[in-house]
């Protein structure tokens, strides 16, 4: 069944196992990919591949909020080069992941847009590092 985009949100795991929503989120994207290793030979004219290393990235746009703990954590993370623990998806009533992906990431960029007549938009890009956990488990 199709899901509405606003049901999936980006959360940071700031303390213990609790997730904190990134306030002011307007859009996000989650991408996984695998390197392709060519293993073609002369038996056919078609290329053959094996899946190599996997990786991913997340892009999220929020309204800039200087009071939001999660946004502050991401700003600190890019300045200090430290990993953040994240979840993108839906949480259940007990603040536990129900549908989505949990991962560690490094913040690769943060940008802000200052348009006349609108709120300040902040765009953040994260590079996933290490294994991704899928919910519900595959």
SSE blueprint:
Blueprint lengths: L8 E7 L2 E4 L3 E14 L10 E15 L5 H12 L3 E8 L5 E17 L7 E15 L3
Antiparallel strand pairs: 1-2, 1-5, 3-4, 4-7, 5-6, 6-7
Features of the shown structure:
single chain
What can you tell me about this protein's structure?
With about 140 residues, this protein is mostly beta strands. It is built from 1 helix and 7 strands; from the N terminus they run E-E-E-E-H-E-E-E. The chain has a 7-stranded antiparallel beta sheet, with helices on one face. The longest helix is centred in the middle third of the chain and has 12 residues. The chain is globular and about 60 Å long. The two termini are about 15 Å apart. The mean pLDDT is about 95.
Question: Which structural class best describes the helix and strand composition?
Answer: mainly beta
Distance between the termini: 17 Å
Q: Per DSSP, what share of the residues sits in E-state strands of 2 or more residues?
A: over 45%
Average the pLDDT over all residues and give the rounded result: 94
What is the H/E order?
A: EEEEHEEE
Read across the widest sheet, the strand sequence of neighbours is 2-1-5-6-7-4-3
Low-confidence stretches: none
The 3D shape can be described as: globular
Determine the fraction of residues in helical runs and give it as a percent range.
Answer: under 10%
- Spatial extent as radius of gyration: 18 Å
Number of strands: 7
């Amino acid at each position: 069944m199709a899901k509405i985009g606003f049901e999936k949100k980006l959360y940071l795991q700031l303390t213990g196992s609790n997730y904190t929503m990134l306030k002011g989120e307007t859009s996000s994207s989650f991408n996984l990919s695998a390197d392709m290793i060519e293993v073609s030979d002369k038996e056919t004219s078609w290329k053959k591949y094996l899946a190599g290393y996997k990786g991913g990235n997340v892009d999220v746009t929020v309204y800039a909020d200087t009071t939001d703990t999660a946004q502050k954590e991401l700003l600190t993370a890019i300045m200090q080069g430290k990993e953040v623990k994240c979840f993108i998806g839906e949480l259940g009533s007990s603040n536990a992941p129900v549908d989505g992906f949990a991962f560690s990431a490094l913040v690769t960029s943060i940008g802000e847009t200052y348009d006349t007549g609108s709120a300040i938009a902040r765009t953040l890009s994260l590079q996933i590092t290490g294994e991704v956990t899928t919910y519900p488990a595959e």
